[in-house]
Specification:
- The structure is a single chain.
- The chain contains two helices and seven strands, in the order E-E-E-E-E-E-E-H-H.
- It is elongated and about 80 Å long.
- The strands form two sheets. Strands 2-3-4-5-6 form a five-stranded mixed sheet, with helices on one face. Strands 1-7 form a two-stranded antiparallel ribbon.
- With 170 residues, the protein is mostly beta strands.
- A hairpin with a 2-residue loop joins strand 3 and strand 4.
């Protein structure tokens, strides 16, 4: 769905809709729903509202797939692409981080929705805070069963250093 900036009335408008979203970093949301308030002041457009999606993610500890609901607040300001030049060589202030640009008098809500969902994916998604992960020795999912591997061996690459310090103690 695209919003034509010149068609936004002075009183603004409310938009509800859905877009297909695919995030290539391991999280996939087939559909993302949005509820947005769109206001325009001259060529500046402000979008406020929420984007909701159900993500299918891979756990950062046990690697199992799980689903998580995502609800993202949206508060963005869009300016014409011609205004990009005024930001060149300019260090963005905190209140300017929510600024985007539009071309050809249109704002693409599919692109906006996909971008916001991608930004909302956790850096290290976890199926649960108590996830035990996988055994580094045999690869068993420790949430499903214990494996019995000895984790006390330490890093084999450090054995020579360990032996050196043991000899120095003698």
């Amino acid at each position: 769905m695209k919003i034509r900036v010149s068609d936004i009335p002075e009183e603004g408008l409310d938009i509800d809709g859905e877009e297909n979203v695919e995030a290539e970093t391991g999280g996939v949301a087939e559909r993302a729903a949005f509820k947005l308030r769109v206001d325009r002041a001259g060529t500046e457009v402000r979008l406020r509202g929420t984007i909701e999606a159900r993500l299918s993610l891979g756990c950062g500890r046990c690697l199992e797939r799980f689903e998580r609901d995502l609800s993202l607040p949206v508060d963005l300001v869009f300016l014409p692409a011609e205004d990009i030049g005024r930001f060149e060589g300019h260090e963005l202030a905190r209140d300017e981080l929510n600024t985007g640009f539009y071309r050809a008098d249109e704002i693409d809500l599919a692109e906006l929705t996909g971008e916001q969902v991608l930004l909302g994916i956790p850096m290290k998604p976890l199926c649960s805070e108590s996830c035990k992960g996988i055994c580094p020795v045999c690869g068993t999912n420790l949430n499903e069963r214990a494996c019995g591997c000895s984790l006390q061996r330490g890093d084999e690459r450090m054995q020579a250093l360990k032996q050196y310090f043991e000899r120095r103690k003698e």
